[in-house]
Specification:
It is a single chain. By secondary structure, the protein is of the alpha/beta class. It is built from 16 helices and 7 strands. Among the domains are: 28 residues; 212 residues, Rossmann fold (3-Layer(aba) Sandwich), CATH 3.40.50. It starts with a helix and ends with a helix.
Length: 354
């Protein structure tokens, strides 16, 4: 079998490359992390049904993903949290799956983000929900086992840390003398926490704002030779030219949110819209692009489901986002404590209204 003579050296070469990359990443302080995979999401999605009325499900994007401390939420509310947020998506696809699922009877926290309601980018969320439904219908245990084994293997390798891939780890970490520190931690329950004391400020903050404004960059470092003063000047120039977004597509998103919320309410569940904190230029940009009266206030008036805006309560408006969009890990538990107490009061008022 002549192919054996080729296969053995190829396998040895591959093994040497893997070991070399892992060794290099270890020398840079990179640690293996849990993989935020479809299989892990589907596992948590199943819990949302299994827990029943005591489930409190978090849907949305990175703000609610990084900003809520699940143990604190459980202690204050007495409900069992399930983290279904997916970075870069809106709540609508997951909310639709929950609304269409007769087995779900819990509470949903919807992460409000006007841009996502206006232009949902739900490809990943919709795909995850579709695969969850298919597995429920056809019982694909073998596929789940394979994915579980793959995720566990990757969770032991530094080249897959932070949901990366070997090539990206090579280019963005191994070949760079001082790569971006691992400032985000991922936990087995799919919750995340960001330690912004590990990144270079205010460069990181400006880089995030620049990306939010659609200027350029990766959101982690200033593009090219741009200095802090140049970044600040460009950001303020862009913000000064912002006009309110069109409300037509937002209105369609609101109507879909209303229909899905009503479907869950009819089954005895709850839906609560939550606006997570923003700060600095990000807060300024979003208020100009999505003025409160035209967007948030309209949602509150039209959807008819409870809504909590962090800016309306002394206990939640005191928190600052280091990168403008997300809370630091040190603020997750205190913020969640304050939010959960507001949530319980809101749900109690809702029940009294009936």
């Amino acid at each position: 079998m002549p192919w054996v003579g080729l296969l053995v050296p190829a396998c040895l070469f591959f093994l040497v490359v893997v070991v070399a990359l892992e060794t290099r990443l270890a020398s840079l302080g990179i640690k293996p992390t849990i993989q935020d995979s479809e299989a892990l999401w589907i596992k948590e999605r199943g819990l949302a049904d299994d827990i029943g009325p005591n489930a409190i499900v978090l849907t949305g994007a990175s703000r609610i993903h990084l900003g809520i401390d699940l143990p604190t939420l459980q202690v204050i509310t007495g409900l069992k949290p399930v983290q279904l947020a997916i970075v870069g998506t809106s709540s609508l696809s997951v909310l639709k799956g929950l609304a269409d699922d007769p087995d779900f009877k819990g509470t949903v926290l919807v992460d409000y983000y006007a841009r996502m309601l206006s232009n949902p980018t739900d490809d990943i969320a919709a795909l995850y929900e579709y695969h969850f439904e298919q597995r429920n219908r056809h019982g694909l245990e073998s596929t789940e086992a394979e994915e579980w084994l793959t995720d566990n293997l990757r969770s032991q390798l530094r080249s897959y840390a932070d949901d990366s891939r070997p090539f990206n780890s090579l280019v963005q970490r191994a070949l760079i003398g001082h790569p971006l520190p691992q400032y985000v931690s991922m936990y087995a329950d799919r919750s995340r926490a960001a330690n912004y004391s590990l990144v270079k400020m205010p460069d990181f903050y400006y880089a995030r704002v620049i990306r939010n404004l659609g200027i350029s960059g990766d959101g982690e470092s200033l593009p090219g030779d741009m200095k802090q003063a140049d970044a600040k000047r460009e950001i303020e120039k862009r913000i000064a030219s912002i006009q309110p977004a069109d409300t037509v597509s937002f209105g369609k998103g609101v109507q879909l949110l209303k229909a899905l919320s009503e479907k869950i309410h009819r089954r005895g569940g709850n839906v609560v819209v939550v606006r997570m904190p923003t700060s600095g230029y990000v807060e300024e940009e979003e208020e100009l692009r999505f003025p409160r009266k035209m967007f948030w206030d309209r949602l509150v008036a039209d959807v008819g489901t409870p809504a909590i805006n962090y800016a309306d309560y002394p206990g939640t408006k005191v928190f600052t986002c280091p990168d403008g969009s997300h809370l630091d890990q040190a603020d997750r538990a205190p913020f969640t404590n304050a939010l959960a107490r507001i949530l319980m009061q809101t749900l109690s008022s809702e029940k009294l209204a009936y």
